[in-house]
Design brief:
The complex is a heterodimer of chains A (308) and B (285).
Chain A: E1 8-17, E2 20-30, E3 34-38, H1 45-52, E4 63-65, H2 74-78, E5 81-84, H3 96-107, H4 111-124, H5 140-152, E6 158-162, H6 170-185, E7 190-194, H7 198-204, E8 207-212, E9 215-221, E10 232-238, H8 241-250, E11 254-258, E12 261-265, H9 274-282, E13 288-294, H10 299-307
Helix pairs in contact in A: 3-4, 3-5, 4-5
Chain B: H1 23-34, H2 37-63, H3 77-86, H4 88-99, H5 104-108, H6 112-116, H7 122-140, H8 142-156, H9 159-165, H10 168-193, H11 197-208, H12 214-224, H13 234-246, H14 256-277
Helix pairs in contact in B: 1-7, 2-4, 2-8, 3-13, 4-7, 4-10, 7-8, 7-10, 8-10, 10-11, 10-13, 10-14, 13-14
The chains are: A alpha/beta (308), B mainly alpha (285).
Chain lengths: 308, 285
C-alpha cells in the first residue's frame, strides 16, 4: 500500500445496537500517519473503532481498512491491526512477557517468534526490566504501556488506540505520546488515536475526525507548522500596539485587536516573527514586545466549533 | 528524557492464516494448569489407579485365574469400560479444577478484548477453552486406559484376545470424546454465566446429576409417578451410552438412543448459552 492510499475509507457507514442507531452514514477517507478521533462521550468513537475492526457487523462495501473490507474479511484485517483497548485488560495468571507473547501467538506468529518479539516490544515501551513482574504490581501507566506492547507485538500496519493516556500521570502521558509519535511518524505504523484529550491529539496527529452523536462533524488537518512558517501571531507588550498594527497593515500584513494586544496575520510567503519585530523597532516610538506567540487554529478550536 | 530502552523495529516475519486458530489458547491453558503442583499430584494419582489395575491384571494372569479353558484372557471390552468408569473421580476433579475459571476470569479481567482484537472467532475461543478441559479428561481417562489395553494385549500373548478387544481404543476414544465435550461445554457454560469458582463448581455437580443418585430418583418416581427421572441425570445417561457401546450391563431401563438424545440436547443447550455469553463486544444499552 502506498502512502497515498487511504488507510480508512467509509461510505455511508452506519451502526446500531439493537434499535439504537449509534453511527449515522459516516463518509470519510483518511491517509496514513496519525489520525485523531475526537468527540464527546457517547459520540460513537469506540463503536467506530469496533466496527472498523470487524467486531460489529458491517454491510459489505461500507468500509475499507488498509484496503480490506471488515465486513468481508475481518480475520485477515485483524492480522494487520493492533488494538489498545480503553479498559484495563489482562489475561489472568500471565506476566508481561507471557501476555505479549500470547497476543502474538493468537495473531498467528509461531511461539518462538512471538516470544522474541514480546521481549523487543516490551523493551521498546520501557517495560524491559519489569517484564517478569506480577502484573498486579503494575502502575496504571505501566498497564497502558503493556497494552501498547501487546498491540505492537505482531508489527501491525495500523494501530487503534482507544484513550491510551487514560489515568496516566504527566510524565507517563508524555512517554506514551512520544511512543505514539515515533511509531506513526518514523516507523510507518499508522495510528488512529481516539481520545477526549484534545492536547494529545494536537501533539500527535496529522489529521482529525470529529464525531458528535454518531455523525461526522468535521475532518481537517492538524497544524504543526514550524515557527518560521507561521503566519498568525499574538502580540502583547508595552507601547502603542495599535500603531504597530497600522504600520504592519501599511506593509501589506493585517491585524485585529485582541484583549491586551493584537493578532497579526502576515502576508503569504512571509512567515515567522521577524517582520513583526523589525516593524516594532522601526516605529518612531518603538513598541517593547513582551509576548509574541504563534496563534493558530488548534484542535481545540476545531473541536468546539464542530460540536457547537 | 530517554523514553525507550530500545528503538522500535519492524518485524520481518510473515503472519500466515492458520487453520487451527484455537491451538495457542489450548496450548497455553494446558501448560499453565500443568505448572500447578495439585495438577501434577492428581495426574500421578489418576495414572497410579490404572497402574494398579494393570498390576492386578498381570497378577491374576500369572495366577491363572483370568485364563479361560481356551487359554484366552477373560477380560473383554467391559473390562476397559470399567477401567474408564473407575477414572470418573479424576475426570470430575479435573473438569472442576481446570474448567471453572476458564471463561469467568477472562470476563472479569476484560481479556476477551485481547482475544477478539486478533484473528479469532468466538468459536475458536470456545474450542480452545474446551480443548484445555478435554486435554485433561483425555489425560486421566483415555491415555491410561489405552496404556492398559496395550499392556493387556502384550501380556495376553494369544492372537484371539486381540480379536476380542481390538475395538476398545476406538470405543474409549469415542466415549472419552463425548465425556470431555459434554462435561467441558457444561463447565464452560457455567463459567460464562457465573463469576465465583465455588458457585460454578457446585452448579456443575448439580447439573451433571451427581446428586441425583438412584435413591433420589426412586423417591422422585414414587412422588411424581413419572418413571423417567433418570433423564435429568447427565452422568447416568453418559454411562448408559458407555455401557451400550462397550456391551456392558446398562444402568437405565430405557433405550440408549434416548440417552444419546439427552446428551446431545444438553450439549446443544450449553453451547447456545455459551455462544451468547462469549461476544467480542459487550453492549450495555
Amino acid at each position: 500500500m502506498s502512502s497515498f492510499d487511504p488507510i480508512l475509507r467509509c461510505a455511508r457507514l452506519s451502526q446500531s445496537y439493537g434499535e439504537k442507531k449509534v453511527l449515522h452514514e459516516l463518509e470519510f477517507e483518511v491517509g496514513g500517519g496519525a489520525v485523531g478521533l475526537l468527540g464527546p462521550n457517547g459520540s460513537g468513537k469506540t463503536t467506530l473503532l469496533r466496527t472498523l475492526l470487524g467486531l460489529l457487523p458491517v454491510p459489505p462495501g461500507c468500509a475499507q481498512v488498509l484496503g480490506i473490507d471488515p465486513g468481508l474479511s475481518p480475520l485477515a484485517l485483524r492480522r494487520r491491526i493492533g488494538l489498545v483497548p480503553e479498559s484495563e485488560c489482562l489475561v489472568p495468571g500471565m506476566n508481561a512477557v507471557e501476555l505479549t507473547g500470547y497476543a502474538g501467538e493468537l495473531t498467528g506468529m509461531s511461539s518462538k517468534d512471538a516470544m522474541q518479539r514480546a521481549h523487543q516490544v516490551l523493551y521498546y515501551v520501557g517495560l524491559g526490566e519489569a517484564r517478569y513482574r506480577d502484573l498486579e504490581t503494575y502502575s496504571q501507566g505501566m498497564k497502558q504501556r503493556l497494552k501498547l506492547a501487546q498491540a505492537l507485538v505482531h508489527d501491525p500496519d495500523l494501530v487503534f488506540l482507544d484513550e491510551p493516556t487514560n489515568g496516566m500521570d504527566p510524565p507517563g502521558r508524555e512517554t506514551m505520546l512520544a511512543l505514539i509519535r515515533e511509531i506513526s511518524h518514523a516507523k510507518g505504523v499508522s495510528v488512529v488515536l481516539s481520545s477526549h484529550l484534545l492536547p494529545d491529539v494536537q501533539e500527535t496527529c496529522d489529521s482529525v475526525l470529529i464525531l458528535k452523536d454518531g455523525r461526522l462533524r468535521s475532518q481537517e488537518a492538524v497544524s504543526h507548522d514550524p515557527l518560521h512558517e507561521h503566519l498568525l501571531f499574538e502580540v502583547r507588550g508595552r507601547g502603542d500596539l495599535a500603531a504597530l498594527g497600522e504600520e504592519l497593515r501599511v506593509r501589506g500584513h493585517d491585524f485585529t485587536p485582541i484583549q491586551n494586544g493584537i493578532r497579526v496575520r502576515l502576508k503569504e510567503g512571509v512567515g515567522g516573527p521577524e517582520p513583526i519585530l523589525q516593524t516594532a523597532l522601526s516605529l518612531p516610538n518603538p513598541v517593547e514586545i513582551r509576548h509574541l506567540m504563534p496563534a493558530g487554529r488548534t484542535v481545540e478550536d476545531s473541536f468546539f466549533e464542530a460540536i457547537d | 528524557m530517554p523514553i525507550y530502552e530500545q528503538g522500535y523495529t519492524r518485524w520481518e516475519g510473515e503472519i500466515q492464516a492458520r487453520p487451527m486458530r484455537f491451538w495457542p489458547i489450548l496450548r497455553r491453558g494446558f501448560l499453565a494448569e500443568l505448572k500447578r503442583r495439585r495438577t501434577l499430584i492428581l495426574l500421578f494419582l489418576a495414572w497410579a489407579a490404572v497402574l494398579i489395575r494393570g498390576v492386578v491384571l498381570y497378577g491374576d494372569l500369572r495366577a491363572g485365574s483370568l485364563l479361560q479353558s481356551s487359554g484366552l484372557l477373560k477380560t473383554g471390552l467391559s473390562f476397559f469400560y470399567s477401567a474408564l468408569k473407575g477414572q470418573s473421580v479424576f475426570v470430575i476433579l479435573f473438569v472442576l479444577l481446570s474448567g471453572t475459571d476458564l471463561v469467568s476470569k477472562d470476563r472479569r479481567f476484560h481479556a476477551l478484548q485481547i482475544y477478539f482484537s486478533r484473528p479469532l472467532t468466538p468459536n475458536d475461543y470456545i474450542l480452545g477453552k474446551l480443548g484445555i478441559v478435554s486435554a485433561f479428561v483425555f489425560a486421566v481417562s483415555f491415555l491410561p486406559v489405552l496404556l492398559l489395553w496395550i499392556f493387556a494385549v502384550a501380556v495376553s500373548v494369544q492372537q484371539g484376545y486381540f480379536a476380542t478387544v481390538w475395538s476398545a481404543p476406538l470405543l474409549a476414544l469415542f466415549y472419552c470424546g463425548l465425556w470431555a465435550a459434554l462435561a467441558g461445554l457444561m463447565v464452560l457454560m457455567l463459567s460464562s454465566v457465573a463469576q465465583r469458582s465455588a458457585i460454578i463448581a457446585v452448579s456443575w455437580v448439580l447439573l451433571w446429576g451427581l446428586l441425583v443418585v438412584d435413591g433420589v430418583t426412586r423417591i422422585l418416581k414414587m412422588l411424581t409417578g413419572w418413571s423417567l427421572w433418570s433423564l435429568v441425570n447427565v452422568d447416568a445417561n453418559l454411562k448408559q451410552v458407555g455401557a451400550w457401546i462397550f456391551g456392558a450391563d446398562r444402568p437405565l431401563g430405557y433405550h440408549p438412543l434416548l440417552s444419546v438424545f439427552v446428551i446431545l440436547a444438553v450439549g446443544a443447550i450449553c453451547y447456545v448459552i455459551l455462544r451468547k455469553r462469549i461476544r467480542p463486544v459487550e453492549v450495555v444499552l
